Structure formats: structure tokens, C-alpha cells
Amino acid sequence: MKFLKVLYLLVGLAIIFAIVGCGAAAPAAPAEEKPAAEAPANAKKEYKDLTVCYPQLGAESDWRTANSASLKETAKELGVNLIFSDAQQKQENQISAMRACIQQGVDVIALPPVVEDGWDAVLTEAKDAGIPVIIVDRSVSADPSLYAAHIGSDMVLEGKKAGDEMNKLLPEGGKIVELSGTTGSGAAVGRAKGFRETLAKNIEILDSQTGNFTTAEGKPVMEAFLKKYAGEIDGAFIHNDNMAIGAVEAMKAAGLKPGDIKIVSVDGTRGGFQLMIDGWVQADVECNPLLGPQVLEMALKLANGEPVERETLTKETVYYPDQAAELLPSRQY
Description:
- The longest helix has 22 residues, at 2-23.
- The chain is elongated and about 65 Å long.
- Helix content is 43%, strand content 17%.
- The protein has 2 domains: 47-152 and 290-313, Rossmann fold (3-Layer(aba) Sandwich); 155-287, Rossmann fold (3-Layer(aba) Sandwich).
- Strands 2-1-3-4-5-11 form a 6-stranded parallel β-sheet, sandwiched between helices.
- The chain has 333 residues and is α/β, with parallel strands linked by helices.
- α2 packs across α10.
């Protein structure tokens, strides 16, 4: 009996020591699970993340074709998703394209407006949706607070340059006609305004009609001028090279020779350079269409909330016949 009590005591002590031994080392704490890496809340967009809407106004001229190509080629090089459309010279088509882009939630809209007026409503819609708008090439009359910036040419300055050139060509004065661009467009309004501001008092504008920036419409306008003012026209201010090409066709058909009517044109396209080489155009005021790099660089800044210049003007010059043959092979448009 006494033996059994001792035995039970030894077994109990053994069990106690075994329990204490098992609990001597605290169990290792489970490894903490690291939260999944999250993208920074304000991560900057890169070009490959950028979606830009470009509702092009049309394809009315060589200038416009070059402008479209510049945007498309630059977007492809940078990896930008460019939503491009052709409004065929109709404002309602541009507005519809903009509204579709707003619905898609694009990052930026770059608008080359066909005319100056009538943009307030759709620009307000874009602003309310948080989509910045860059006005490209031509200008708009809308409240400047509705768009982020303008990139393009100073159309009034182009007109002033053209006026200066006409003064040089007709120092004794004379009578001229004007082939204007699309009625109500920033280019037509600005060029006409600047031209009149610098044109000499002894030069009279006989008539001004729109050729809508196209060769097809420029030709009949000049035909009508030549019939109405036969023998009176000393010079012509033509708002773009495509209309100048049409005007020269009309002049050839009427039996005129290069230089019979002094022509100042605008754009500086390959077609305009050829007219200078052939003697028909005496001065061509440059308007650079290669805006793709500037537009997409600004679009990326705006998408990232960075500040941009409200007004960015392209550097442009005036070209003359004595330079044309040498420079033509290197012209990109």
C-alpha cells in the first residue's frame, strides 16, 4: 500500500514536469500577413495611360491633312490612345464627337474649332465632367475659363505679316481682292483683321469672298473676281495655299501670266512653295500644322494636374520665291 502511494506520487510528479517542460517555450507567434501592395493614390499617368479625343474639323486643305497626320503619328510614337474623328467642316459633328468623348471619360479633349462661336455649352459639359480642353490651331469666342489652354498660330499676326508683304509688292498703291477662309473661323477672322490693320492707305480692297479654304471653291471665286473687275486687280490676299492653287488655275484660264497679279498667301505648304517657284505667289506667310508633339505633351500635363501655359504660339516666318526651290525638298507638308 505504502509502495503504491509512492508510485502514484512519482507518476504525478513526472506528469507535472512533462507539462511544465512542454510550456517552457512559448509558441512562436504566427507570421503577420503583409497587406497587398497598393498603387499610389496619385500615381502619374504616362503617355501609354493617356486617352485624348481629337475631333478634327475636316480635311479641307493640305495644311489640315498635315495637322491630322502630325497628331496621329505622334500619338502612335508615344503610345497615346487617340480618338480621332473627321467633322467634315460641320460644327454639329464636332460637338457630337466631343459629347461622345465626354461619355467615354477621356483624359483630355483637343479641339480644332471650325468656327469661333457656339462652343459654350459643350465646353461647359466637358468642364463639369472634369475633362480639360485644349483649343488647337484656331480660336474660340467662349469664356476662357471653360478651356485649359490654346496652342496654335496668332492669326491676327499672320494677317499683319501679309499686309506688310502686300505693301512691299504695291508701294505705289493699287487695287486688290481677298479670298477669305471659312466664314466665322478664327483663321479667317484673325487674318482679315490683321491684314487691314497694316495695309497701306493707298491700297484698296475691291472685294472679299470666302473660298472656304479649299482649291475647289477658291477657283470659282477668283473666276468671278476676274470677270467683275477685269483689268483692275493688282494684287490678291489669299488666306491659304489651297485657295491660291484654285485662284492660279482661274488666272491661267483667263490668260494671265505669273506676276500680273501679286499674290500673298498663307500656310507655307509644298503646294504654296511650288506656286512661288513658278512665279505666281510672291510671298507665303507660314502657318505650322505640325502641332502633335506640343498638343500631346500639354495633354499629359493636364491629365496629371500640372500647370500649363494658357497661350502657346508656334514660331513662324514668311517665305519668298528666292528660297522656295532650295527649301521645297525638305518641307514636311
